[in-house]
């Protein structure tokens, strides 16, 4: 009877070892010195190292990509607390830098991995070994990354003006409102510039709407070249643009407006054998504590823009309250 039990145990052991060798996950057993005790076929196939080549070797000596301090900290908690520890690919893309061989996600350079570290508790209740189970989640990670990219692109498109590639009116106004709230919190200066293209209807009537679109595109290009990376530009509508100058007072805002006005005045837009010359008019308003909300700030810049138009166009005007 005892002999029959031994035969059963041996058969069960071989069955278990066969399963561990053939499952499509990585399995590594380490002792307390982080020496490799078990290394299944998955690990051999992806590392190119057979079990006899890694047996009793310190894992950090074979795989330098494993962050030693981080892994030891994770492993020690498993040894001490006798609880499993998990790491997902979002937290750390991989533990072992294995090449990715999946055909569907062939663009991914390496295998993304989820990791489980489990305690192996002996019959005496001690934990002298831990087991690393490695899951290939490259397909999941790749799909998730592609979805994130697609969502980011959709988000960008939803806030971008198609003609100029500047912020569209809705998103730009959101940024203007946020900048007004920042001023209320910090008291730091910010200046708003609103400007439009002088006699733009004449450009459309004379040269056609495609020429008008090209004029708008090139004005947006000059604006991008002139502004700082911290400034926030948008197409407000038609031929009108808005620009938020962060940490800038009205005097400095006027200096910027004059640089922009001069560059646009010097610009020549060529369209179907025609050279189109044009100018812009600008209104400037610095936010202060007498401004009740961002809409009033916008109205002040529009008022200054209107004064530039009334004053003969091709000029900049600072809002004065009159």
Q: Can you tag this structure with a few keywords?
A:
Alpha-Beta Plaits, Beta-Lactamase, five-stranded mixed sheet, single chain, five-stranded antiparallel sheet, alpha+beta, 46% helix, 2 domains, disordered N terminus, 322 residues, 11 helices
List strands and helices in order, with pairings:
Layout: H1 2-22, E1 26-31, E2 36-39, H2 41-47, H3 51-54, H4 59-62, H5 68-81, E3 85-87, E4 113-121, E5 127-136, H6 138-158, H7 169-186, E6 190-197, H8 200-207, H9 209-226, E7 232-237, E8 240-246, H10 250-265, E9 269-271, E10 274-276, E11 280-286, H11 294-310, E12 316-318
Parallel strand pairs: 11-12
Antiparallel strand pairs: 1-2, 1-5, 3-4, 4-5, 6-8, 6-11, 7-8, 9-10
Give the SSE order as H and E letters. HEEHHHHEEEHHEHHEEHEEEHE
Tell me the CATH topology of the largest domain. Alpha-Beta Plaits
Share in helix? 40-55%
Major beta sheet summary? 5 strands, antiparallel
Any low-confidence stretches, pLDDT <50, length ≥5? 1-15
Number-wise, the strands total: 12
The number of helical segments is: 11
Name given to the CATH homologous superfamily of the largest domain: Reverse transcriptase/Diguanylate cyclase domain
CATH architecture identity of the largest domain = 2-Layer Sandwich
The computed structural class is alpha+beta
What portion of residues belong to β-strands?
15-25%
CATH class of the largest domain: Alpha Beta
Describe the protein:
There is one protein chain. The chain is an alpha+beta fold. It has two domains: 2-145, PAS domain (Beta-Lactamase, 2-Layer Sandwich), CATH 3.30.450; 159-318, Alpha-Beta Plaits. Helix content is 46%, strand content 21%. It is built from eleven helices and twelve strands. The chain has helices at residues 2-22, 41-47, 51-54, 59-62, 68-81, 138-158, 169-186, 200-207, 209-226, 250-265, 294-310, and strands spanning 26-31, 36-39, 85-87, 113-121, 127-136, 190-197, 232-237, 240-246, 269-271, 274-276, 280-286, 316-318. The strands form three sheets. It has a five-stranded antiparallel beta sheet with strand order 2-1-5-4-3. A five-stranded mixed beta sheet has the order 7-8-6-11-12, sandwiched between helices. A hairpin with a 4-residue loop joins strand 1 and strand 2. Helix 8 (200-207) crosses helix 9 and helix 9 crosses helix 10 (250-265). The longest helix has 21 residues, at 2-22. The radius of gyration is 33 Å and the shape is elongated. 30% of the residues are buried. The model is unreliable at 1-15 (pLDDT under 50).
